[in-house]
Design a protein that fits this description.
mainly alpha; 2 domains; two-stranded antiparallel sheet
């Protein structure tokens, strides 16, 4: 479903003369669907860039004080809670913030495990260490990295005769 939707969006922007589609994905569950749709668009001649949640972790690692539970699994912990404290503080109830490092199932790397079987609170990490200042640092780092990469891609397209649309 996501693959088809991203493909249709890409087709629509191509019809309007755009040469580049940039996707900013912040949910690891979207990666496979996006890959499928974006590969089809590449085959059709559209330039695509996709930024995945690993960028959030990379920027978050620079300010996080709490340990990561896993190399890719994180949810509602210090990084995500800090981002929300910066971007939408009215949605965060820090008096309910918890630290939860669930036991890692032996088959975590190989099996889909529903969230309610993995964590009681929905948190995987330590939300109690979140601050709006950390969120600002993370957000600005992500924006800077994405902006820099997009500008480089547009310059590359312009030098090859495409205008980036």
């Amino acid at each position: 479903m996501l693959a088809g939707m991203i493909y249709e969006i890409g087709q629509a922007i191509m019809r309007h003369g755009f040469k580049l589609l940039v996707v900013i994905n912040s949910h690891v569950g979207n990666v496979d669907g996006l890959k499928e749709g974006l590969r089809r668009l590449l085959d059709d001649g559209l330039n695509v860039m996709v930024f995945n949640p690993s960028l959030i972790l990379e920027m978050g690692a620079k300010v996080a004080e709490s340990p990561f539970w896993h190399k890719t699994y994180y949810h509602a912990e210090e990084i995500e809670t800090s981002l929300l404290l910066y971007l939408a503080p009215h949605l965060v109830k820090m008096d309910k913030a918890v630290m939860e490092y669930p036991e890692k199932p032996f088959d975590l790397e190989y099996t889909f495990i529903p969230w309610d079987k993995l964590t009681r609170s929905g948190v995987i990490g330590d939300a109690t260490r979140a601050t709006p200042e950390k969120g600002k640092t993370i957000f600005e780092g992500i924006v800077e990295e994405i902006s820099s990469m997009i500008l480089k891609e547009v310059e590359k397209l312009q030098s090859s005769g495409e205008d980036g649309g």
